[in-house]
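Training component of the fellowship. As part of building independent skills, the fellow (R.M.) carried out the full modelling exercise for a liganded target. The chosen ligand was 5-O-phosphono-beta-D-ribofuranosylamine. The inputs are recorded below so that the supervisory panel can assess the work.
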Amino acid sequence: MKKFAVFASGNGSNFEAIAKRMREEKWDAELSLLVTDKPQAKAVERAEALHIPSFAFEPSSFENKAAFERAVIEQLRLHGAELIVLAGYMRLIGDTLLEAYGGRIINIHPSLLPAFPGIDAVGQAYRAGVKVAGITVHYVDEGMDTGPIIAQKAFEIQENDTLENIEHTIHELEHKWYPSVVKQLLGLNNRGEKA
Ligand code: GRF
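Fellow's submitted model of the complex:
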């Protein structure tokens, strides 16, 4: 059975959506670890409620990024993680993690990349007056929201849409599609079995 980890720095709603879908559909896979760089994050509470182990670290208590990434890798190995799913993890992945897990790290971003990388992507798109918005799942490389695109979902913005309801639609799309992409990358078929 393939095991995977989710990294989150904040709310963790995507983390929860993936965990719930995995359980509802009885995937032949296990979300074995939540990793966070914010010990107070809501994602940690969600992991506790779901009985999923978490590794919360304080970056400032390590000498540098390589040092905390080594600690993360140790935890990933302990929990058998073969795939890393970033879901609102607000840090660039460094060389240490990329060397250990390169090609096996994915991220979700709330825009149609390569448009609007970085923070507040939905706000950036809204202020630019785009007529089509969406989400992107991509492999992670050393850049910020760069790396080969795996999947995108788009929707049209209506005249009377507000930033709030666009954000709402984005989250709904993320919760629906990110678990599906993860499932596919784990090599599972529609029934959640090994394909
Ligand atoms: C999502 O919008 C995701 O696209 C972005 O960060 C947000 C995380 O939300 N990378 P949540 O913590 O999963 O609720």
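The panel noted the following from the submitted structure. The pocket of 5-O-phosphono-beta-D-ribofuranosylamine is lined by residues 8, 10-14, 87-88, 108-110, 174 (CB under 6 Å). The helical segments are 13-24, 42-50, 65-78, 95-101, 121-128, 163-185.
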